[in-house]
Amino acid sequence: MMEPERLHATVIVCTYNRAQSLAETLQCLRNQQVMAGRTWEVIVVDNNSRDDTRAVVARFQAQWPILRYVFHPTQGLSHARNRGIAEARGEILLFTDDDVHPEPDWLEQVLSGMAQHGADACGGFIAPMFEIAPPAWFTPRFYGFVAVRTERTDDYPITDPSQAPFGANMAFCRWVFDRVGLFDTRRGRTGQVLASGEDGEMFERILAAGLKVVFLGRARVHHKVETFRLTRRYLLRWRYQTSRNIAESRDVPGTRRLLNVPLYLLPQTLRAVGRAVAGSVFATPDEAVHRQIIVAHFLGTLHGLLRRRRS
């Protein structure tokens, strides 16, 4: 069997029940302005949607032959991303989401930026598109919870996992996955479960392997921030489920344990609760929410460790 023709790039969009939003993302991708001679494709990985996703993609395919559709029934964002990698023909694999509007030069900025810096992987600028004005307490310190990254607009090397790009705007040389493996399917969003961390864990492996990662300030997308994400309830749920997922999938340090929970976590959790209670009275609104999120982190971690023990 002949090997599929290699392309310069593949854009992978994983989607779940967001047909209308996906149509906007695809229109932005169709509007990409790329250098003459670039060969590329777009793959939509439908992760078991029950809405009009297939019909939306079909309408675009009628006028846009580089668009491909793949249905992947195993639920989970990491599963869908791994299927996209397996299907891709590009040498550079770019990822964005079904609620993102890439700017018209996004693809070109990623490809030229990676070539300029000799990068093996990259991330880029993510601006927010708020459905409503954020509440007063929702300051930029919470942008990471809604996958927004605006703190810098220059190019710079990423050297620590804490700087890891977000999945709304990231790209990799395809051989990187042969070197470090695919996305961890124990992590990542699954249906309505918000657990995250698969992007950061991937970049941990990439950095540990000594590969070069850069941030490209001119590779820009705009990420929708729906109204329901601008609530304390959403942020607490996101933090709880993500911390639970991380603790269950990779454990935490500590040898002296009770029911698989390191003993040092118990007083830390109690202190966090005390600080949150005090913060509800004395702290600024954003600091009060931040302290509540820390409590959600500890509670999610404890739950994940208990689940890890049972499994």
TrEMBL record:
Alphabetical list of InterPro entries matching this protein: Glyco_trans_2-like (IPR001173), Glycosyltransf_2 (IPR050834), Nucleotide-diphossugar_trans (IPR029044)
Record EC number: 2.4.-.-
Signal peptide (UniProt feature, chain positions): none
Segments forming domain Glycosyltransferase 2-like: 10-131
This protein's UniProt keywords: Glycosyltransferase, Transferase
Single GO term (MF): glycosyltransferase activity
Chain segments annotated as coiled-coil in the UniProt record: none
Family annotation (PANTHER family): GLYCOSYLTRANSFERASE, SLR2126 PROTEIN
Name recorded for this polypeptide: Glycosyltransferase
